[in-house]
């Protein structure tokens, strides 16, 4: 278990959506300092947070952030993109963009901040996945989140002996800019953030933040037609 009270946390994509709610929730739970990162740190409006420029796909930017935030004990990998790609019809560069941000971004930040967290006595990493980690309905976005899920599972094994716990957050539609055009039930970012932070404090391996996510995960052990009924003639 990891105490948030008194901790120093870095949240990628901390200026809006789930990231903004995470920053607010961290302060409510007593975090000592929160670095809220964004490509443009001026978009971070919470005056309690430390705005920090970060492009998670740029190794130099990640290294600079790790140098500036040398007191971090908890890393939250929240930054993500969705290019809405089709594997057959979209430009391959768009497929790569999903992977560069959603898979390689958290990998770069983990590699940079694990030594920092370890040096500070251990701590926690939270990776924000998606229900689409488990169902291929969104092209390369689904694939990149599935790859991040696998990365998280591997990191959990690698980091446990080093005093760093790892939690994966899986969630369906959340009421953010990314889902503005989607007409479907959506979770509140504040509720999702609260569940995620409770997962950190309880040492949960995974947090399933809504009924849809729990339903899809339960279907992984069933015949593939359960998750993909459109395949059944």
Automatic annotation (TrEMBL):
Belongs to the short-chain dehydrogenases/reductases (SDR) family. Keywords: Oxidoreductase. InterPro entries: NAD(P)-bd_dom_sf, SDR_fam. This is SDR family oxidoreductase. It comes from Streptomyces tauricus. Gene3D superfamilies: NAD(P)-binding Rossmann-like Domain (3.40.50.720).
């Amino acid at each position: 278990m990891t105490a948030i009270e008194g901790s120093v946390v870095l949240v990628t994509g901390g200026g809006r959506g789930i990231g903004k709610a995470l920053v607010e929730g961290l302060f409510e739970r007593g975090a000592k300092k929160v670095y809220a990162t964004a490509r443009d740190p001026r978009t971070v409006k919470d005056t309690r947070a430390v705005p920090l420029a970060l492009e998670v796909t740029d190794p130099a930017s990640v290294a600079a952030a790790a140098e500036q935030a040398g007191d971090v004990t908890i890393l939250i990998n929240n930054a993500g993109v969705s290019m809405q790609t089709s594997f057959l019809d979209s430009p391959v560069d768009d497929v790569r963009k999903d992977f560069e941000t959603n898979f390689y971004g958290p990998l770069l930040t983990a590699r940079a901040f694990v030594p920092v967290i370890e040096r500070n006595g251990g701590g926690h990493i939270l990776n924000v996945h998606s229900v689409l980690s488990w169902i291929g309905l969104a092209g390369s976005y689904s694939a990149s989140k599935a790859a991040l899920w696998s990365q998280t599972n591997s990191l959990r094994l690698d980091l446990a002996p080093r005093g760093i716990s790892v939690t994966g957050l899986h969630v369906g539609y959340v009421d953010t800019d990314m889902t503005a055009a989607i007409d479907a039930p959506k979770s509140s970012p504040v509720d999702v953030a609260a569940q995620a932070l409770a997962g950190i404090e309880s040492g949960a391996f995974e947090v399933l933040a809504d009924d849809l996510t729990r339903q899809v995960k339960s279907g992984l052990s069933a015949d593939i037609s359960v998750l993909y009924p459109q395949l059944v003639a």
